[in-house]
Protein: Peroxisomal membrane protein 11B
Organism: Trifolium subterraneum
Amino acid sequence: MNDTVDKLVIFLAKRDGIDKLVKTFQYVSKLVNWHVETTQPEISKRFKNWEVASGLSRKAFRTGRFLTGFNTIRRNPGSTLTLRLLAVLSNSGEMVYFFFDHFLWLSRIGTLDAKLAKKMSFISAFGEAVGYVFFIISDFILLNEGLMAERKLRSSEGKENEKENVKEIQKIRSDRIMRFMAVAANVADLIIALAEIEPNPFCNHTISLGISGLVSAWAGWYRNWPS
C-alpha cells in the first residue's frame, strides 16, 4: 500500500502525470454528460462544466510545452537517418500543436478575440495530427526492429551468453509494451484531432471522442507510472 502511495506521489509530481489525471476527468465527464443529457439535464450541465474546466486547465498547464520538442530532437535524434527525419517531422508537428494551443486557450477564456478560437483550433489540431502520424510510423519501425533483434537473440547459440540474452529479451519486451501504449495513445489522439480538422460522424461522436480520450489518458498513465 505504501509503495503504491509513493508511486502515486511521484506520478502526480510530473507534468504528464497531472495531465493524464485531468484528461481522465475531462473525458469521463464528457461521457457522463452525454449519457444523462436527456434524462437528468441538471446533472448533465454539471458534468459539462467539469469537462470544459478540465480541458481549459490542461491547456493552461501545458504552457511552454512546445519547447520540449526541441530538447527531444537534440537529445534523442534517432539511430538512423530515417528515424532522425521522422523525429524532426513528428516533434515539429507536436510543437505546432502546443504552440497554437496557447492562442486557442487565450481566445476561449476571453483574453484574445473569441473569433480566433476556430482558426487556432484547426491549426493546432492539424499540427497534432501530422505529429501523431509520424510518431506512429516511428514506433512501428522500432517495434519491427525489436522483433528482429529478439529473433536474433533467440537463435544465437552458446550457454555463456544465455543470461545476457534473457535480460536483453526482457528489455526488448518491456520496450515493446511501452511502444504499443504509445501507438494506442497516438491513434486515439489522432481520432480526436481528425474530429476537429475534418468533422465526420465517426470521429465526432461523443462515444468515439470519449473512449479515444480515455485510451490516450490511460495509455499515458501506464507509460508514466513509476516502475
The two ends are 15 Å apart (CA to CA). The chain has eight helices and no strands. The chain has a mean pLDDT of 91. The CA atoms of residues 89 and 131 lie 7 Å apart.
